[in-house]
Design brief:
Layout: H1 3-9, H2 17-22, H3 29-34, E1 38-41, E2 44-46, E3 66-69, E4 74-77, H4 83-96, E5 101-105, H5 117-123, E6 128-131, H6 133-154, E7 169-170, E8 176-178, E9 183-188, E10 199-203, E11 208-212, H7 228-239, E12 245-248, H8 257-276, H9 282-290, H10 302-320
Parallel strand pairs: 4-5, 5-6, 6-7, 11-12
Antiparallel strand pairs: 1-2, 2-3, 3-4, 8-9, 9-10, 10-11
Length: about 325
């Protein structure tokens, strides 16, 4: 184990970690200072990120990096949106354990969830990165470069220096990984939900489900690459799993009722648009649909995304006719 990792592994020296990394690699100090891992199950930790859009102040950090610690290894899910954020996630892991990080899983193609991969490859060149086969293909075909550029632009170059480490290990539905006393079960979403690259991960022994952006809690997210009907179907599928703890893509972890709550948002928007589209234009629908969404009005992203969600639902409903 190298000097940097040894320092990070020792809680007494954790205060030195940022300066050690700063000698050669940028680290997100805000994540280290303000966002601590929360233990949501015996072996599962989540760093619940802020819910604002990526900006210079949050350094692009907005998702929920998670990690599973066993006697054998550490497994990471969605390490964040830049190399600096990934290094901070790794530093938080090293405060808890010095076990090797051998596997990193990605829930979907959006770069705010996986561009932190670089940090884990820096520490362990043998680490394996897993994702939906569509995610790997899309990333190779330009999505990776587009997300690196997007994060740089949105954060005013706060994420500069990030290199896209694209997953190489394609997942299939029903895959099962032995993590050393725990099982990671893979649920590939058929068709589009939040995207056409979505994967959910389940730890059956601890009844924990990681949903990626298929499910969010107190955060309305973009649906430009998704399907409202598909999102409802994916939420219904998740509700049929034997889990009682849910780690969403954005927002705080919670109970299984979160699945129904987010599904209801997608369903209300989509079904309302389908009912109204013969009589009015999408922009005319908004006040009527808002009246059915009073529980969601305070969620970050609501004001920015609802109008677009109505327009996207109208397009999806039209496509259903063919």
């Amino acid at each position: 184990m190298n000097k940097t990792v040894l320092l990070l592994a020792c809680p007494l020296l954790s205060a030195l970690s940022a300066s050690v990394w700063a000698e050669d690699r940028k680290i997100d100090q805000g994540l280290l200072d303000n966002y601590q891992p929360e233990q949501v199950a015996e072996h599962v930790y989540v760093i619940h990120g802020p819910t604002a859009y990526p900006n210079k102040q949050n350094q692009g950090f907005m998702n929920n990096p998670a990690f599973i610690v066993t006697d054998k290894e550490v497994t990471v899910i969605d390490p964040g949106s830049s190399s600096a954020i990934g290094r901070a996630v790794l530093a938080q892991i090293r405060k808890i354990t010095d076990k090797p990080v051998n596997k990193v899983f990605t829930t979907h193609v959006h770069g705010d969830h996986w561009l932190g991969n670089q940090a884990f490859q820096e520490e362990n060149p043998e680490v394996k990165f897993y994702a939906h086969p569509n995610m790997i293909e899309e990333a190779k075909n330009g999505a990776a470069a587009e997300w690196v550029s997007t994060m740089d632009s949105m954060t005013e170059n706060a994420t500069a220096g990030t290199e896209a480490v694209i997953p190489t290990e394609a997942l299939t539905d029903g895959d099962s990984f032995d993590l050393g006393g725990l099982t990671l079960k893979v649920h590939l979403i058929t068709g589009k939900a939040h995207t056409d690259t979505d994967v959910m991960f389940e730890i059956p022994e601890e009844k924990v489900l990681f949903t990626g952006d298929t499910i969010n809690n107190k955060r309305i997210v973009r649906m430009d690459d998704g399907s409202f009907a598909g999102g409802v179907k994916a939420a219904d599928y998740a509700m049929g799993l034997d889990v009682d703890k849910v780690v969403p893509g954005h927002g705080h972890s919670g109970g299984k009722n979160m699945l129904a709550y987010y599904r209801d948002y997608l369903s209300k928007v989509y079904n309302s648009v389908k009912k109204m589209r013969e009589d009015m234009e999408p922009f005319e629908m908004k006040p009527k649909i808002e009246a059915e969404l009073t529980d969601y009005k305070g969620w970050p992203g609501y004001q920015e995304e609802l109008g677009k969600h109505i327009s996207l639902s109208a397009l999806e409903a039209e496509q259903e006719d063919f």
